[in-house]
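User: Can you help me understand a structure? I only have the sequence.
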Amino acid sequence: MSEPASVLTVSADGAGRTTGELLREAGVKDTAVARVNGELRDLAHVVVDGDIVEAVPYGSEDGRAVLRHSAAHVLAQAVQELFPGTRLGIGPPIKDGFYYDFLPERPFTPEDLTAIEKKMSDITRQRQRFSRRVVSEDDARAELAAEPFKLELIGLKGSGDSGEDVEVGGSELTIYDNLVGDATVWKDLCRGPHLPTTRDIPAYKIMRSAAAYWRGDQANQQLQRIYGTAWESKDALKEHLHLLEEAEKRDHRKLGQELDLFSFPDEIGSGLAVFHPKGGVVRMEMEEYSRRRHVEEGYEFVNTPHITKGTLFERSGHLDWYSEGMYPPMELDEGTAYYLKPMNCPMHNLIFGARGRSYRELPLRLFEFGTVYRYEKSGVVHGLTRARGFTQDDAHIYCTREQMRDELTSLLTFVLDLLRDYGLTDFYLELSTKDPVKYVGDDATWEEATRVLEEVATASGLELVPDPGGAAFYGPKISVQARDAIGRTWQMSTIQLDFNLPERFELEYQAADGTRQRPVMIHRALFGSIERFFAVLLEHYAGAFPAWLAPVQVVGIPVHADFDGYLLDVAKRLRAEGIRVEVDTSDDRMQKKIRNAQKQKVPFMLIAGADDIAAGAVSFRFRDGTQDNGIPVDEAVERIVAAVRNRT
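Assistant: Let's start by predicting it. Here is the structure, written out as tokens:
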């Protein structure tokens, strides 16, 4: 079977040609760059005999990254042409876009951003050619003498510690020139690759500016960051902008305020939420249903304190590997260091080890709604999705090695079923493996744990995506990734296999043969945190929670004040069935009462006028605006109770 046209093996006749020439002759039109022997290369890259050349389409992940990186160069060129004194930072592609960091003589204004985008259009129309050249460190310093941040990056390259800086990765130091004819009109330190010309950037838009510290370190100089987005077509850009518009409407922080669910008082501090009564009801329902399902699955509930002596986290290893994410210690009891707990697992280990355990007790499933505290940097705190204080639905399962595979299989099934009960149905899995530096334990144990997780994940039938180096220090993990109503992906449940903490805590059980054995420990947070899951559901449903979760499930709307008593009696019947109901007895007109209920996204409205009362009925209105008139009260109550109890 011959190779497809998008993958070519270079023959002796093809040697000395460029990747672009070879792919064009093969009839390949949609290619941003090429992959040569597994490495991304410009289309101007010259191949040799035996090279394997593969086209990289614009719409692929790598293709988008390259076109966005090219757009970042055009952005930087536009800025320096408009504001000549501006110094350059770095400009990498990121998810759905790109940014470039600058040190301007003054902060950018909204009018500046408009002018910059216009200048970018001028540059793209000029069809400037991106041209790569290898330079020595001395030559790079000479050419970029006016760019102090670039000089710093060159120094990092020379020290062998370039970190994540995109300009200086790889074995060579390279500069990309923007050429008009043979003349260089702009240049940047960059490892590439890039599109052939500026005109090959199909569609882009400047989004916003923000402050950013150089290389992400608050100890460094503050720069101005300009964000943009770039796509493989104008239609793809239009679709992305529509998605952003829809996401803005669904922003949980905005909806939280509009629906009176929660807030973040300045008096309390960044990343620390308070839930209002309506938000508290939603949270209570989420937790109560989860508790009931956990009881059905054989979990046992525990509770642990919010602070602990530092020696516990020394023993667990968190002070060695996680101290930057912990709040500073409190000095109590004549100098003893106490910490707010960042996680619950060390305390659950103490519960397991509090007395002797038998193999007959395993698997032992300990569950806690445990509030933890993590000192996130202020720049990454984001509403309920990235908070400093939050409550995990945290479970730790202790089992034998023989039970491990079955336990993981049933656990993954339980996790997916429960997420489906809350309305999330579109999943894939991510397998996070060992960080080559930050880990504890031996390689053989890690390999066994990773293999078992991979086999269980594969058997689920869901797509499995690798996440190399993304594991916690104590073991590999599976993450359940869920797509919401507008296609965004959220990391939900995590399942982590851990052979190391039982060793550190010297956990044992008595096996059937009388020997003492170490249990395997499985870490599992199903929601991740109550707060974050609340935010995900709020955005997924755009605030219109299903009836069983809605803070107010029914609003009674009397056509006239004379009919208040009738609907108050109906409300009493609904409350007796556990339904959350209000009756709007305000002086507002009926249409305004309906609008108010719809703005609060109440699932059901019961409207009563003289004819309804005479017939012992109500007009049954749904939040989408549809309405059934003349519904007997008994039937209306039955409909509502069924919808809530069946979680429809």
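Now, to help you interpret it: The chain has four domains: 7-56, 61-241, 262-540, 554-645. The CA atoms of residues 363 and 399 lie 4 Å apart. Let me know which part you'd like to focus on.
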